[in-house]
Specification:
A three-stranded parallel beta sheet has the order 2-1-3, sandwiched between helices. By secondary structure, the protein is an alpha/beta fold. The two termini are 24 Å apart. The protein has two helices and three strands, in the order βαβαβ. The longest helix is centred in the middle third of the chain and has 20 residues.
Amino acid sequence: PAPSVAPGVAAPQVSPNAVAHIAVLLPLNSSNSYLVKAAKAVEDGFVAAYRAHPGALPVRVYSCSDEKEDAVAAYQQALSDGAKVVVGP
């Protein structure tokens, strides 16, 4: 089935090379160092959980800033790349 799309966001075309994964959108490009540290901790947690459960959907981190437009672009890219679940930002 096609992934759900947030209200007001156009559904992107899924790439023919898409791979099912869990997308984690994090503001790793923020100018706020505290926000980046928190985002890095979330990233580390997702990666650790994935390593603890081999065979689960792979986790792919999408780095974005804390700007709305950047987060929407990362979301659309994740869907295009085949994300089955999107977490964040």
